[in-house]
Amino acid sequence: MPDTIIKIFVFIFGSIVGSFLNVCIYRMPLEQSIVKPRSFCPHCKKPIPWFDNIPFISYFILRGKCRFCKQNISLRYFLIELITAGAFLLFYVRYGLGFDFILYNLFVCLLIVATFVDIAHRIIPDEVSLGGVVIGFILSIYRGIGLSPLGLNYRPILDSLLGIIIGGGIIYLTGKAFDLIYFKLLKKGPIDGETESMGGGDVKLLAMIGAFLGWKIALLTFFMAPMFGAVVGTANLLIKKQHTIPYGPFLSLAAIINLFLADTILRLLFFI
Ligand SMILES: [Zn+2]
Fold it and tell me: 103 C-alpha to center of ligand 1: Å?
């Protein structure tokens, strides 16, 4: 099959998966089932017929409005389909169709759900973060077996395990150290009603990133995320007068950048 046709299929498949991620993002924080019932309009609750649920195309045909109640459908749905489809295509171009394609697509799907739920609700569902830790670790075992047919290769497994411990650990300890200094020693009051600087969700999310990408990239992500966070956090403080921002999106963004560029960045940093 010509490569272009595979690319088109991969892109379409990605957009369908993205459409499912939209359902997860909407329903998971509300503790609703992600399989039943079928998609419905968040405004008028009418079920969405299949022909109105085609990724991208339906959004254009309906001009971003529900067929029944004419309320606007959030642009977020369209964006998430596009991001997912784009990611699938990118991973196909980089890794072809194989183990890495499945591994990284799974990873990016978990990050997309974590990011958009965190933006909307300031939580990261445990099903995503802790579920991701388990999936990432199991896949590292699979990789360990695949690398050496004669026996288990412990390196990917150890890398994943250390990624979980170091990734989760470093955020946990930093958060605790900050809270100790800021709230206890300096006796400052709560920030926007919060007395903890780092949510447990962020700890579990970086543990998941470590499970998939290993301890080096988990560390790199830990140091890179605050740079994005600082920019958006400052803007948020000036515009919306809010002191806190969800941190999951920055961890996710840094993880994706590192997934593609970690080798280059580490080489530049340490001249190796
Ligand atoms: Zn509607």
Answer: 36
DSSP-based three-state secondary structure for 4: helix
Helix (H, G, I), strand (E, B), or coil: what is residue 194? Answer: strand
At position 194, the amino acid (one-letter code) is E
List, for residues 187-217, the tens digit of each pLDDT value: 777 776 666 766 789 999 999 999 999 999 9
Burial of residue 77 (number of CB atoms within 10 Å: 0-12, 13-18, 19+): buried
User: How far apart, in whole angstroms, are the C-alpha atoms of residue 114 and residue 244?
Assistant: 17
Q: Report residue 137 as tokens.
A: 């670790």
Neighbours of ion ligand 1 (CB under 5 A): 41, 43-44, 66, 68-69
Rounded-to-10 torsion of CA 131, 135, 164, 24? -40
Could you read off the pLDDT of 218-270 as tens digits, one per residue? 999 999 998 888 888 888 888 877 777 788 999 999 999 999 888 888 888 77
